[in-house]
Amino acid sequence: MAVNPTGADMKAFLAAGPDQPIVMLNLLRFAEGGAERYEEYIAHFRVFAEKVGATVLYYGHGAEPVVAEPGQAWDAVLLVSYPSRQAFSDMVRDPGYQAGTQLRTEALTEAVLQPTIPRPA
Q1: What range(s) does the DUF1330 domain occupy (predicted)?
Q2: What is the pLDDT of residues 17-52, one digit of tens each?
């Protein structure tokens, strides 16, 4: 399973509107020992997220699901607000950010990065 976006993924992502604000939903499944490794990644990530104006809205470990098909439970959820799709793209292209992405790759066996579009409540 892929845990990081490809160039083609990012091209399609930006084509949907580079100036559009998003909240990125991250569904995370850890490798053995991955929870601790992901904590290292989060510390690295926060530095570069702040540079592009992104804010971590929530990070938490999963509990037993109330409603889910077998295998749908996730180890953790991360929600990050980005001022634009372009800001997310700029962050993931930053060489400093890329230098720490191996932490994320080593921590995860599976991930979903789902951009969401904020709506009025």
Answers
A1: 35-109
A2: 999 999 999 999 999 999 999 999 999 999 999 999
- pLDDT per position as a tens digit, 73-103: 999 999 999 999 999 999 999 999 999 999 9
> Dihedral sign, CA of 73, 40, 109, 5?
positive
21 contacts: CB under 8 Å, gap ≥ 6: 81, 82, 83, 84, 117, 118
* Tokens linked to 79: 């929600």
Q: Where are the alpha helices (DSSP H) in the chain?
A: 7-15, 34-51, 85-93, 95-98, 101-107
Q: What is the CA radius of gyration of the chain?
A: 14
Q: Is the pLDDT of residue 4 over 80?
A: no
Tokens of 75: 């180890």
CATH code linked to domain 7-65+72-116: 3.30.70.100
Instruction: State residue 75 phi and psi, 5-degree precision.
Output: -75, -30
Domain ranges of the chain: 7-65+72-116
